[in-house]
Amino acid sequence: MAERPSNLFAERTRERIKQQACGKLLIDEECYHFTSDDLTDLGEIGRGAFGTVNKMIFKEGKVMAVKRIRSTVDEKEQKQLLMDLEVVMNSNECPYIVQFYGALFKEGDCWICMELMDTSLDKFYKYIYERKQQRIPESILAKITVATVQALNYLKEELSIIHRDVKPSNILLHRRGDIKLCDFGICGKLVDSIAETKDAGCRPYMAPERIDPERAKGYDVRSDVWSLGITLMEVATGLFPYPKWDSVFEQLYQVVKGDPPRLQTSYNGMEFSQEFVDFVNTCLNKDERERPKYGPLLEMPFILRGQRSHTDVAVYVTDILEKMVKDGITEFTTNQPAES
Ligand code: ATP
Ligand code: MG
User: Fold this and answer.
1) What is the mean pLDDT of each run of 10 residues along the chain (340 residues)?
2) The CA-based dihedral angle spanning residues 63, 67, 73, 74, taken in that order and rounded to the nearest 10 degrees
3) Distance, CA 170 to ligand 1 centroid (Å)?
4) Which of 22, 33, 171, 237 is the most buried (most CB within 10 A)?
5) What's the CATH code, domain 119-326?
6) What is the pTM of this model?
């Protein structure tokens, strides 16, 4: 007897849901098909406005960071996002971007599997400035700047990706000395699609030309250069460079109508080199037409100094992480679970 159309429909729907909840992981050049059941949760690492990040172990033994983010995109867009992600998964020449392993869509969430790092720059700098009343040395700031500009330039030149969400929490650190950018591509697109459906509130690192409704136009890398300037000023001084905004209107007014933040060689009782000041202030040019793209930025003296320097980032980061662990701020996220 022929199957009733409604049963057929139910069967196809089930099949579709099953397919969607299955994804592809690319780990150390091995490809695995996986579902969420193949991942064991080892605890939450962090929480953002749009989702959570957990440490998880894949059944084959790989420990990773899994970001679960609400997905409002339709099936066609999901497929497109997964295809875009494959391009990123297959590109591993840039040491300054977090490695993606794969993703799946499940019950209205997107699970994004990526390389596990030890901490993010927001937690790191707050610990140093607020808890320890110390500063991040300029030699380390230079390494952070080099890594971030190289990562942004690679994304644009090699993968045609504009980041759109450069900020301290999206710059990750590893005790082996790696500094890597995350939350581009699929993460950014999912957040953008949520932001379209709901008021995303203040986005404090956003460039004036992005906020000003009168100037709204296509996204240009120079808006990310502004966000980089705000990020660097914040991690160098220990303070977000604008006073706290109480409303989106206030943000609009200050960023669009007010003077841009300006770093000086003597700032809030701290001393900075002329090269660093010039770099930050160049990024914070309010007129995007006068703000450089990555080519000229990569030739600035502060970047060249960072590239030449032999500062040991691993030693510095490990020392701070150990102090953070002692003070109960963090654990070493990259520690593998004990062998059973
Ligand atoms: P927002 O929601 O405003 O973008 P966010 O960047 O902090 O803020 P998430 O991207 O969800 O939000 O990340 C939450 C936290 O998880 C981050 O602050 C970071 O400390 C941590 N984290 C994210 N990705 C990783 C990773 N790959 N390895 C280790 N920690 C990570
Ligand atoms: Mg993030």
Assistant:
1) 60 57 89 93 92 93 94 84 84 92 90 96 97 97 98 95 94 98 84 62 82 74 96 98 88 92 97 98 96 98 98 98 93 58
2) 30
3) 6
4) 171
5) 1.10.510.10
6) 0.91
